[in-house]
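RECORD TYPE: protein structure
NAME: Mitochondrial glutathione transporter SLC25A40
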Amino acid sequence: MAEKAPGGISPLQQMVASGTGGLVTSIFMTPLDVVKVRLQSQRPSPTSGKCMIYCNGILEPLYLCQNGSRCAVWYQQPTYFTGTMDAFVKITRHEGARTLWSGLPATLVMTVPATAIYFTTYDQLKAFLCSRAVTSDLCAPMVAGAMARLGTVTVISPLELVRTKLQAQHLSYRELGACVRAAVSQGGWRSLWLGWSATALRDVPFSALYWFNYELVKTWLCKMAAKDRTSVSISFVAGAFSGTVAAVLTLPFDVVKTQRQMELGSVGALRVTSPRSPSTWLLLRRIQAESGARGLFAGFLPRIIKAAPSCAIMISTYEFSKNFFQRLNLENCPRGP
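PREDICTED:
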């Protein structure tokens, strides 16, 4: 482990600081993430008079008719959400408020270590790039953010898939296990990384844009406030702004990622060999053809509402924790005679 300079913090302290931020952010922001996933994963309402194949992701598909005389009288058309507030109201009314925190254990298991690895790797990479003059100080945050996120996405992708299934279909953990086992038996272990490319296309540019804008805005705000050290309020504002910009520009890839990961349940239910998934660009074109440009920005409001406060809470908690450890290290630093 690299030694820390007086007033600096060690990589272990960086991991503790970022893990704490991830824990706090996950608890507060999970309901918005649940609504976003439910909006993105729902299908358009079936046209009256047409038939469809209904599959809940676990059971065998059933042939149902939407012409008034249904093939299965017990079938109830899944709740369709018209918007963010409609989703909040219907989920709370029909499924209970606890559903808004569905997948929270998987989120915590994924988010805390992923955030710790991601932020620590970013800080270490940025320091390395700046000290070795590999890139300019302006581009160092962008390069370090992209590289750190790419590694984190690869490690965390299977847990992200599990969380998406829990939130979108409200499966029990036993049903989820059966769904994952069925998919692995048909598509192999690679099926657990279903949607990796779309996730990387969303998260890597998001990370590069976020850190580039964050460092710029933070530096500008510090100069405006005539402060040498980043305060919690400055990091909060800079994080909210940077997260919003990055979220808007990468939203279509977030929709593709959700659609790709939802294919896991369909493959497991049909018990057939997993077909070759279309490329990300083909899937983008298909979503646009089926739902228009609006489909590419499904879940826009909850993602934006989530991005600003979650990025703000995360980075401000991280900066606060780093400042705490810096003060602690200075106090414990042996003083000369």
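COMMENT: The longest strand covers residues 51-54.
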